[in-house]
Backbone:
């Protein structure tokens, strides 16, 4: 590949660079915020959900290299479930709390993704309310936006599988 392409930065504006020029990843974010380590969803299979390449408080960048196993049809379209998984992983990484879980999402699949494409997801927290977070995620193949969504998350005191949800449900029924 030669010529000029647009590299997406945290300010969500394109920066024109030559393809043989190395640009530090998310330089603006790294200058303004100290980079942190991923402490949530640490057992996610990065082959299917992408790899966190940048993480700061309230921000994450995840890169998904699409694989043959993600094929949805004979032409080579990637199944949307893999795109959603990577976007969700980016949202969880942006919150980066050990017990963060997805409560709901509203997503748009804007353009198909092909086997072999590399999809870059930018996730930014947009709203904090107690233990609730709303994270806006955009996915790009080069400078083409292929995905956009809002992920509503909840941070629980304990791991969601350790919560006594059945007991809490029964208590709520009795109160009604």
Residues:
């Amino acid at each position: 590949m030669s010529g000029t392409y647009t590299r997406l930065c945290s300010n969500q504006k394109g920066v024109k660079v030559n393809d043989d020029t190395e640009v530090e990843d998310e330089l603006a974010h790294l200058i303004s915020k100290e980079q942190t380590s991923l402490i949530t969803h640490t057992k996610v299979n990065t082959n299917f959900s992408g790899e966190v390449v940048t993480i700061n408080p309230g921000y994450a960048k995840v890169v998904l290299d699409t694989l043959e196993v993600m094929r949805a049809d004979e032409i080579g379209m990637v199944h949307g479930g893999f795109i959603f998984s990577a976007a969700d992983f980016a949202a969880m990484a942006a919150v980066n709390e050990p017990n963060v879980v997805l409560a709901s999402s509203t997503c748009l699949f804007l353009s198909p993704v092909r086997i072999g494409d590399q999809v870059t997801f930018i996730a930014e927290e947009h709203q904090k309310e107690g233990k609730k977070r709303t994270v806006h995620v955009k996915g790009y193949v080069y400078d083409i936006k292929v995905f956009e969504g809002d992920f509503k998350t909840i941070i629980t005191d304990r791991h969601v599988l350790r919560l006594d949800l059945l007991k809490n449900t029964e208590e709520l029924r009795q109160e009604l």
In short: Helices lie at 27-32, 46-49, 80-95, 165-175.
